[in-house]
Write a structure and sequence with these properties.
The complex is a heterodimer of chains A (187) and B (429).
Chain A: H1 2-17, H2 27-37, H3 43-51, H4 56-78, E1 84-85, H5 98-110, E2 116-121, H6 128-148, E3 156-162, H7 173-179, E4 181-186
Parallel strand pairs in A: 2-3
Antiparallel strand pairs in A: 1-4, 2-4
Helix pairs in contact in A: 5-6
Chain B: H1 2-20, H2 28-32, E1 38-41, H3 52-68, E2 71-73, H4 81-85, H5 95-100, E3 105-114, E4 117-126, E5 131-141, H6 145-161, E6 170-177, E7 180-187, E8 194-195, E9 203-208, E10 214-219, E11 226-231, E12 236-241, E13 246-252, E14 258-265, E15 268-275, E16 280-288, E17 291-296, E18 302-307, E19 314-319, E20 325-327, E21 335-340, E22 347-353, E23 356-362, E24 370-371, E25 377-383, E26 389-395, E27 400-406, E28 413-415, E29 421-428
Parallel strand pairs in B: 1-2, 1-3
Antiparallel strand pairs in B: 3-4, 4-5, 6-7, 6-29, 7-8, 9-10, 10-11, 11-12, 13-14, 14-15, 15-16, 17-18, 18-19, 19-20, 21-22, 22-23, 23-24, 25-26, 26-27, 27-28
Classes of the chains: A alpha+beta (187), B alpha+beta (429).
């Protein structure tokens, strides 16, 4: 889905960029674009691509960006961040999440270019205002654990959403347990 | 006049009950039985030529008076043609007839409409002795007819109870869905709903200053929860706190443009005040843990707030002169969202019971705690400027709605404004 979105976005951009020349991208070239998107090259189509009127440099630059994004994406997708769950009205990181946070910490120490945001969330119980503060404390607790394990605290931002963004919209004990969480996102 | 004395007596009886029950935990439906509602008759307003508007106006007055919780409005079926046709002046009224059907107070009114201008002339009589309790004339544009009816209702309540009602009040609240909430302002009767924010983001915790000029709220519109103060008159932002962390929980001091809010970041929470006129931000209280939901006493000498300094959220009061802090709530593991009455006699808050969160009240020293709701997640209680009504949000497993009730838990009503999940209501002073 994401690729499709990027691809469509590119098409629009290319389309706009070429508007004065009124160049239309033939279906064949669209296929080229798609294969470029997917990182598949063959010399034949590459040549054909250069022959085209599509802005070559621009595409090359995008290609480089894309490769870099891809590698960052690969790097990021290698990281498997899991939610840290909390007890009701608590912002104490439980023992059972130490191992998981240690792994996150080790990964962050190996990938020093990556910055993260820890989001703190609450279940629907309790007051809106207190939960906004509680979510902040949950995010801070996860951050403090990572910082203690040696990750530079300057790479970690925190944000609380209180009970505004539940992971599970249900009203059961299970849903509430899933929603009392700190989750890690890339900055 | 005798009626007023009678009501005075009832009120003092209520006070007696409050005092005598001070130490026991009492559910208010028991307490509520100790005062008697007064029956009022409101026959259709007189007009030159009967039309829809006259009925609408009469119906709205019925609704407003019923909404007050202090009155029983006699059903229209009780008032026969003879009573309806009677004039509105004292000498034209046969008070005996009204008394015989159990009506204690009688409100008669006349509507004149000319060139888009509407005049409402109203009289309030005590049927016991036929004495005139209130005579008022209101003028407005025809399109604004709801306003004059609300004002008449509030004036009737002022005459009977010594305090205006809330029919002319406005409220602010946050409404929306997951990941998008906006701040709205509306008349309490659900009319004139106006969206004040439009950032495709989450906006929360609205509060309006006592002069009605400034709106404060928390919004994620710049990516993280910042605190904004907006000048409603000049339509511009006048203060933003963009510090790292959560900034939320605003309340304003009475008669001053001073705002208090909490900031939680790292290990600490700080309660700040911000003086809008002096552009002066000060730290009032700073400690480890959570400190949030500040609310001032009307004289500005005390501040209630929530802290988890003993492990669970509890309500504390801080004397701003001496700096002493006293814990107010000891029962239960969750007491939060306090709001000081503008009259200074009551603190309304939320307490957790088993699986539910209930609206409760207590005296400013923590005594006399009462539970006013039953079941669901009730939140963000706020007392009206007259100190007698509590507006709050209630969620019983579906959508969150805005509700209003009397300070004793009676006369609960659901208010309807938008299609969204409505939370954090506040009266506009």
């Amino acid at each position: 889905m994401k690729f499709l979105a990027v691809f469509l976005g590119m098409l629009v951009l290319v389309g706009m960029g070429c508007a004065p020349k009124a160049v239309q991208i033939p279906p064949a070239d669209q296929q080229q674009l798609q294969s470029i998107q997917q990182g598949k090259y063959d010399s034949q189509s590459d040549k054909k691509f250069k022959d085209g009127e599509v802005l070559e440099e621009e595409l090359a630059r995008r290609d480089r960006d894309r490769m870099r994004d891809l590698s960052l994406k690969d790097q990021k997708s290698a990281a498997q961040f899991k939610d840290v769950l909390f007890d009701f009205d608590s912002y104490v990181v439980k023992d059972e999440y130490f191992q998981q946070l240690n792994e996150t910490g080790n990964w962050l120490k190996q990938n020093k270019n990556i910055r993260i945001i820890i989001e703190g969330h609450c279940d629907e119980k309790g007051t809106v205002e207190y939960n906004l503060a509680l979510g902040q404390k949950r995010a801070e607790a996860a951050k403090a654990y990572l910082a203690k394990s040696g990750v530079d605290a300057g790479r970690i931002k925190t944000i609380s959403y209180g009970k505004e963004l539940p992971a599970d919209a249900g009203h059961t004990e299970d849903a509430w347990a899933r929603n009392r969480r700190a989750n890690i996102k890339f900055d | 006049m005798k009626r007023i004395k009678f009501i005075g007596m009832i009120l003092s009886m209520c006070l007696f009950f409050i005092v005598s029950l001070a130490d026991a935990k009492v559910y208010l439906d028991v307490f509520g039985k100790s005062y008697k509602k007064i029956t009022i008759g409101v026959p259709p307003f007189k007009v030159e030529k009967p039309d829809r508007l006259r009925m609408d106006m009469t119906e709205l007055l019925h609704k407003d008076l019923d909404f007050s919780g202090f009155l029983i409005v006699a059903p229209p079926s009780l008032i026969d043609k003879e009573l309806t046709d009677e004039g509105i002046e004292k000498q034209e009224i046969k008070f005996n007839n009204w008394r015989s059907i159990g009506i204690e107070l009688l409100c008669k009114a006349k509507v004149l409409e000319k060139d888009g201008e509407l005049t409402l002339e109203a009289f309030l009589y005590d049927t016991f002795d036929g004495s005139l309790m209130l005579a008022k004339r209101y003028r407005t544009q025809t399109g604004e007819w709801r306003k004059v009816v609300h004002r008449l209702a509030d004036d009737i309540l002022l005459t009977i109870t010594g305090e205006k009602g809330i029919n002319s009040n406005k409220v602010v609240f946050a409404s929306g869905s997951r990941s998008r909430k906006d701040i709205y302002m509306a008349d309490i009767d659900g009319q004139n709903v106006k969206r004040l924010t439009n950032y495709r983001s989450i906006c929360l915790s609205p509060s309006v200053s006592s002069n009605g000029k400034y709106l404060s709220y928390t919004s994620y519109k710049e990516g993280r929860p910042n605190l904004y103060v907006f000048d409603l008159e000049n339509n511009r932002e006048i203060f933003v706190d963009r510090e790292e962390g959560m900034k939320v929980g605003t309340s304003w001091m009475a008669n001053k443009a001073i705002l208090a809010y909490s900031h939680t970041s790292g290990r600490y929470s700080t309660i700040y005040t911000f003086d809008v006129d002096r552009k002066d931000k000060r730290s009032l209280l700073r400690n480890e843990g959570i400190y949030t939901s500040p609310s001032f006493s009307p004289d500005g000498t005390k501040m209630v707030f929530v802290s988890d300094m003993y492990g669970t959220p509890q309500i504390f009061v801080r004397d701003l002169v001496s700096g002493d802090t006293k814990r107010l709530t000891y029962s239960g593991s969750y007491n939060s969202s306090p709001n000081f009455s503008p009259k200074g006699d009551l603190i309304v808050f939320v307490a957790k019971f088993e699986g539910s969160f209930e609206i409760c009240t207590m005296n400013p020293d923590g005594s006399n705690q009462r539970v006013l709701t039953s079941g669901g997640i009730n939140d963000s209680p706020h007392l009206s400027p007259c100190g007698r009504y509590i507006i709050y949000s209630s969620n019983k497993g579906g959508k969150s709605t805005i509700n209003v009730m009397l300070f004793n838990g009676e006369n609960k009503r659901v208010l309807r404004f938008t299609d969204g999940d409505e939370v954090q209501p506040r009266f506009v002073p």
